Amino acid sequence: MSMVVTDPRQADNPIVLANRAFLALSGYTADEVIGRNCRFLQGPDTGRAAIQELRDAMVNQRDISVELLNYRKDGSAFWNQVHLSPIHDDAGRLIYFFGSQQDVSDRRRAQDLEAAEHRLLKEVDHRTMNALAVVDGIVRLSRAETVSDYAAAVQGRVHVLARTHRLLASRGWIGVPLSVLLRLQLEPLGLDRVRLSGPPVDLPAPIVQPLALVFHELAANTVEHGSLSASTGLLDVEWFPPEADGRVALRWKESGGPRPQPPHRRGFGAIMIEAILERQLQGGMQRRWETGGLEADIRIPVTTPHEAVLPVL
Are 257 and 227 in contact (CB under 8 A)? Predict the structure, then answer.
């Protein structure tokens, strides 16, 4: 076991004895250790709280065990479990401190890994439950005249979630630029008839999949009923810098297609857009059916007011 003895009767409580195990642990020679205070083992990331605990124990002359990050002579760091005990003479006067040291880096790494794995498993479980909640809403609320049309509607929406999930994973779940998310949903429509413009805006990861579903529903309606159902139709999507309330204004403007007809009843797509934008993300959308096509003013958050999971609809 690595051991040192220090003399608190001398100035700065220097080391007066160090065994070979201590020299091997620290990488120093005896000449470099004897006569110095043990603080030479400290470094930039040594915890101040642990140092204060040791100081308090010495002032109060009591035993203490504490773990702190120390540094060898070569600069490499290790977790050091230090046990410190005061030594008194027959008259009860403090004459030495005895300290033992043990490298517990492997144990600390194992503990950190276990904690990281636990956090990862909780996050995976959270994301899985979120995705399943969205899929459940899609399966229950999608509508179609035939079984094949229903299957296609569900499959298309679930595919959007999967594609967006891969995008988030590729970026380390740190968020996605708005332009990238829009391109991901609109590229299948043919970007020769889609124009995107706006400043750089980053979307936080929790709202990316719900917004992907919003853009998917809008795009699907544009292809089926809107401007892109005609060979002359165009789609312009423009967004603006974030406003003071943490939302971004986005304008969805169709032109050159057939004259749009306001729907007689809300379909699943409209219900989902309303649920995500208004009830869940505290944004919104206003639609106008102009002569040239649908125009929609959308307000989307660039901060997350709460968990961005599609609610149970």
Answer: yes
Structure tokens at 243: 């406003």
Torsion of CA 261, 267, 272, 277, to 10 degrees: 30
* pLDDT recorded at residue 26: 96
Contact (Cβ atoms closer than 8 angstroms) between residue 223 and residue 189:
yes
Residue 309 has pLDDT above 60, yes or no: no
Three-state SS at 79: strand
Q: How many CB atoms lie within 10 A of CB 228?
A: 25
Check if the beta carbon of residue 113 is closer than 8 Å to that of residue 121. Answer: no
pTM for this prediction: 0.56
Domain range summary for the chain, segments of one domain joined by +:
2-103, 122-301
The domain made up of 2-103 has a fold known as: Beta-Lactamase (3.30.450)
Helix axes 105-141, 205-224, angle to 10 degrees: 30
Q: Token pair 């795009």 is at which residue?
A: 219
Query: Quick check: 102 and 80 in contact, CB under 8 A?
Result: yes
Looking at domain 122-301, its CATH class is alpha beta
Question: Helix (H, G, I), strand (E, B), or coil: what is residue 306?
Answer: coil
DSSP state letter for 40? G
pLDDT, tens digit, 9 for 90 and up, residues 42-73? 999 999 999 999 999 999 999 999 999 999 99
- One fold for both 2-103 and 122-301? no
The bridge status of strand 202-203 relative to strand 176-177 is antiparallel
